[in-house]
Design a protein that fits this description.
heterodimer; A: 374 residues; six-stranded parallel beta sheet; 10 helices; B: 306 residues; mainly alpha; ABC transporter involved in vitamin B12 uptake, BtuC; 69% helix
């Protein structure tokens, strides 16, 4: 329950409300940017050095600061409520931002969709949102990486490392990206040994330290000996799992410094490259595609270097699978496959390649995952 | 590792009670001390967060977790002292000051804590009480942190202090009637300020437990309202330190219910299980309420009872 009532931006916001009362159009207050200069706003749902989701984006933001003519404004700890709408409007009206990266999943609907039509010359780039041309404004774009492939590779390393044949996943909320990660992690492990199961525990929040630690302990108590997660800041999960003697697979960023001996590998974002491309396009006056996706081969994601606990057999299969994924068109979800309630997901011969958009509305956990989406 | 089946749930609740209860315990003991002297300090959430940050920072800089605990206690005492001093001024409302102090404490903690999100500070030691068992689950559940034991002892010590010592009597007199205390030659403002400072020190130590043991790292989302819940626990525990200990254990255990049930396969409706501690509070408050006599055990000078 983070509360941040007194921030600089909060103060400006109340100032903006007063100015609005004085019947000043918000558009007229926008500072005129010098030609060629671009102010870019980044909004994070948590602290930007959280060893996780926000840090990955902030590293991307740091990379574009070096580009000439670019000013970056950032705000951390912005809740997925009307707060983010106010932050976006204040970045546009007071800082003169014309390109915004509101990075958290929950910012998209309804917040970006509410603000974007009011500012047609501002570009809104959202990470993970399911943009579609017939429903959403054209100044909104969506970008994401096929990080499920990274979790599949995590699963390969986990499948070789587990002795109990039980691996664990601490998940925040049952949204499609999280479900795809859980399913990919298990299927990666099952490519090593089909008897492996994966226990998932949902915490219900993107960041809730004590509950993440409790969830990790519950996984270890249940016998899971390789643990990964999809929460905003994996630090607590990684430290708790290592203290219980479980191996770790990282997520979002490189967490190997937290427990070098137990860390197998990790699925990391590589936003620096994605953001640099987008900025260069904008500076050159070219449009950014509204729907940008990419995987390992496109440099959107990368894997942490394999840790010392990874065996030679594991390393060989990891590298072979990675090479396979690098070719493109790899399918994690392929038939015959059922979900964990027994419904058929993919018939024999049916496969959903990484680029398949239907994967982004995933609402099931595959057979072998112990858990429920509600 | 052996599969415990459904027995994993009570074991997880026990483990959770031991792991999660300590911050609740320290904050509620601090609040009992403060409220027994006739003042409410709602700012303990801020003190908890600042204690967590300062404890982590000092532990990281000195390499000693115990130095961190001391620093957290000192920081907490300082916040309590400020609260106490401001509330000693005439016509100042302690609830409003408490809310201001809560926001100030969190803001300062976030500001000064920025450079300490990444570093890894040493953890407080724990004692294994599970050596007799072969089950790793039992051994993990019975890893008891030293601060938990200190908190338990402090609960009994405070209870004894209020019941049988001169200091305890003075605090109770000041809390029950300012006029009577004045007639006895006591200085209520001074005593309340000292009690608030001591209460703040308790809350600071609670914060140090969060950042130095469980979950054991500093970040801005570390406290999810534990400090506020602990203030409510005091009413729940009827201003009795030993009851605070019990209430803290109950809360810790209830918080472990959600993950534990999911790990044994009861996975539907986890949002509901996560609400268990709050449902529990409501239930117990309703069950123990009385139509004739509200607030048994409440100090007479408390502004909520006036």
């Amino acid at each position: 329950m983070p509360m941040h009532p007194f921030t600089r931006r909060g103060f400006l916001r109340s100032g903006a409300a007063l100015a609005g009362a004085a019947a000043v159009s918000p558009l007229s207050m926008r500072p005129a940017a010098a030609a060629g200069d671009l102010t870019v706003g980044f909004i994070y749902v948590g602290p930007k050095d959280d060893f996780g989701y926000n840090q990955a984006h902030a590293e991307g933001a740091a990379a574009i600061k070096a580009i000439e003519g670019i000013t970056v404004v950032e705000e951390e700890n912005v809740a997925e409520t009307t707060d983010v709408q106010k932050t976006m409007e204040s970045m546009i009206n007071f800082d003169g931002a014309s390109l915004l990266f509101p990075t958290s999943f929950g910012y998209f609907d309804p917040h970006i969709l509410e603000v974007a039509p009011k500012y047609p010359d501002v570009r809104f780039e959202h990470s993970g949102g399911l943009w579609s041309a017939d429903k959403h404004p054209s100044n909104v774009g969506s970008y994401f990486g096929y990080i499920g492939m990274g979790q599949y590779l995590n699963g390969v390393a986990a499948g070789h490392a587990t002795k109990t044949k039980k691996i664990g996943f601490v998940a925040a909320k049952p949204i499609p990206q999280v479900l795809l990660n859980i399913n990919s992690f298990l299927l990666g492990a099952r490519s090593v040994d089909p008897s492996i199961t994966c226990q998932v525990i949902f915490t219900g929040e993107w960041s809730m330290a004590v509950r993440e630690a409790e969830a990790t302990n519950a996984l270890a108590d249940g016998g899971a000996d390789v643990i990964t997660c999809h929460v905003d800041g994996p630090k607590v999960v990684m430290e708790t799992a290592a203290s219980r003697g479980a191996f770790l697979c990282g997520y979002h960023a490189d967490q190997s410094p937290l427990a070098p001996d137990m860390y197998l590998t990790g699925a990391e974002w590589n936003w620096a490259q994605v953001y640099t491309d987008m900025i260069n396009k904008t500076l050159a006056g070219e449009p950014i595609d509204n729907f940008v996706r990419g995987g390992l081969a496109d440099g959107f994601i990368k894997m942490s270097p394999l840790g010392p606990a990874v065996s030679d057999a594991s390393r060989a299969q990891f590298e072979a699978t990675k090479a396979e994924i690098m070719k493109g068109g790899f399918a994690v979800i392929k038939g015959p496959l059922k979900d964990n309630a027994g419904n058929v997901i993919a018939a024999e011969g049916q496969a959903f390649a990484e680029t398949d958009v239907t994967l982004e509305s995933m609402d099931y956990l595959v057979e072998g995952v112990i858990g429920s989406t509600s | 590792m052996s599969d415990l089946g459904i027995w994993a749930v009570p074991l997880a609740i026990l483990g959770g009670a031991i792991r999660v209860s300590t911050p609740f315990l320290f904050v509620s003991l601090g609040e009992v001390l403060t409220e027994r002297s006739g003042r409410i300090n709602l700012g303990l959430e801020g003190t908890l967060v600042f204690g967590a940050m300062s404890g982590y920072a000092i532990a990281f800089l000195t390499g000693s977790p115990w130095a961190g605990v001391l620093a957290a206690a000192a920081a907490g005492a300082f916040f309590g002292l400020i609260h106490g001093l401001i509330c000693s001024l005439p016509r100042v409302n302690d609830i409003a000051i408490g809310i201001a102090m809560m926001i100030l404490g969190m803001g300062l903690a976030f500001y000064f804590g920025k450079p300490f999100v990444q570093p890894v500070a040493p953890d407080l030691p724990a004692i294994s009480f599970g050596w007799w068992s072969d089950l790793p689950q039992v051994r993990a559940a019975l890893q008891v942190n030293v601060l938990f034991l200190i908190g338990g002892v402090a609960a009994f010590a405070l209870w004894w202090m209020f019941r049988a010592t001169r200091v305890g009597l003075i605090i109770r007199v000041v809390g029950d009637s300012t006029d009577a205390a004045r007639a006895m030659g006591l200085r209520p403002a001074l005593i309340r300020t000292l009690a608030t400072a001591a209460g703040g020190a308790f809350a600071g130590v609670g914060g140090a437990y969060l950042s130095l043991y469980y979950p054991g790292s500093w970040n801005e989302g570390l406290s999810s309202g534990q400090g506020l819940m602990a203030v409510a626990l005091v009413i729940f525990a009827r201003w009795n330190p030993i009851a605070c200990f019990g209430a803290a254990l109950l809360f810790g255990g209830a918080g472990a219910l959600g993950p534990a049930l999911q790990s044994v396969g009861v996975s539907e409706g986890y949002y509901l299980y996560y609400a268990a501690p709050y449902v529990l509070t409501l239930g117990v408050l309703i069950a123990t309420s009385s139509p004739r006599q509200a607030m048994t055990g409440a100090p007479g000078e408390l502004s909520i009872t006036k």
